[in-house]
Specification:
This protein has about 80 residues and is mostly beta strands. It has one domain. The protein contains one helix and four strands; from the N terminus they run E-E-E-H-E. Strand 1 (about 5-10) and strand 2 (about 15-20) form a beta hairpin. It has one helix spanning about 45-50, and strands spanning about 5-10, 15-20, 25, 60-65. About 0% of the residues are buried. The N and C termini lie far apart (about 55 Å). Strands 1, 2, 3 and 4 form a four-stranded mixed β-sheet that branches.
Length: about 80
């Protein structure tokens, strides 16, 4: 079934987290109303009986990044005092 993918980048050195824009992911099924392969001529009331009508739960992905995010100082490059 179709769903939304949420991607988070976590920067442990500076303890920042950035969430990217939600990305729709299509299941590619003709029996899913949200899929791009769903036929245009499939309409209610038969569509509501035979086709999935909602997205599944979002999938969350977290990526740990060792470098600093753009626009923030790279604390690892600072000279130790």
């Amino acid at each position: 079934m179709c769903h939304i993918r949420r991607v988070y980048y976590y920067y442990p050195r500076c303890d920042h987290e950035i969430q990217l824009e939600d990305t729709p992911v299509s299941c590619g099924s003709r029996w899913c109303r949200i899929s791009e392969l769903h036929p245009a001529d499939c309409r209610p009331p038969s569509c509501t009986r035979t086709c999935f009508q909602v997205r599944t739960q979002p999938q969350d992905y977290s990526a740990y990044v060792c470098s600093s995010p753009k626009g923030l100082p790279n604390w690892s490059d600072r000279a130790s005092v």
